Structure formats: structure tokens, C-alpha cells
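Throughout our pipeline, every protein is held as a single compact record rather than as scattered files. The remainder of this section carries one protein's record, kept here as part of the documentation.

===
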Amino acid sequence: MLNRWLWLSALVIVLDQLSKAWITNHFAFGESFTVLSVFNLVLAHNTGAAFSFLNDAGGMQRWLFSIIAIVASAWIIWLLRKHRAQVLFALALSMILGGALGNLIDRLAYGYVVDFLSFHWDEHYFPAFNLADSAITCGAFLLILDSFKEKKHGTVAG
């Protein structure tokens, strides 16, 4: 059953890397294409973390975020082994794992993460992101949702 969750993580990684390869092969750095009035495809490079946090930290962030991703991935795999029967929890973790490893591949290979999804409203732009970021965000949402589920063990019916 653990394999099912790892296969889902692998699928996230493959889709993420294929989408990044496509955008990299079809766009020049900084090039943008308007898809909708609120959505553009754009080739961007993020050397920092979410929302370009530590983007200008002089290069140390590449290794810092790589180490964090490796440690977090090992912990997530341990959690998946322990809680593989908890479907929503395991689904959330496998999406986060796939996203973390998808971005780790970029960080190790290029020194930055390839971003290409850009949403905006008028002149206000949300930082560009990618499918790995989307998987991490969806996984985090599912973890929050899972935390609201009634836990059957350790509760007393009243």
C-alpha cells in the first residue's frame, strides 16, 4: 500500500518535470504569454523559496533548501509507512513529497526552481509558481482538512 502513495509522488514529479521542460524549451527567460486576462505563462527562475523568500541570499539558499527538502522527504516517507492506511493523510503527504522532490531536482540541477504559472489582477501579480508548488499547496490543504476529521481513537462518545 505504501507503493501506491510513492507512485502518486512519482507521478507528481514526472508531470512537474515535463511541464518545466516544456516551458524551458518553448520560452526564453522572462518571456510571457497571456492565456487569460488574469493568467500568463512566463519562464521565471526562483533561487529562493516560496514567494522568492531568500532569493538574493548569495547562493547559500540553494543548499539550505535542498537539505530541508531531503530531510522533509525522509520524514514524509517515514510518516507514509506509519500512516499508509489513512487515505486523506497519505494522499496529502504523497502530494507534498512529489512537489518537494520536483523542486529539489531543479534546485540541484540548475541552482534555481523553474516557475511558469503567473496569476494577476490588474497590475498586482502573484509570484509565479509551478506544478510542484501546486501539489505542495494542495497537499497542505488536505492536511488541514484531515486535521478537522474526527479522530476515532482516544475519543469518548457522549
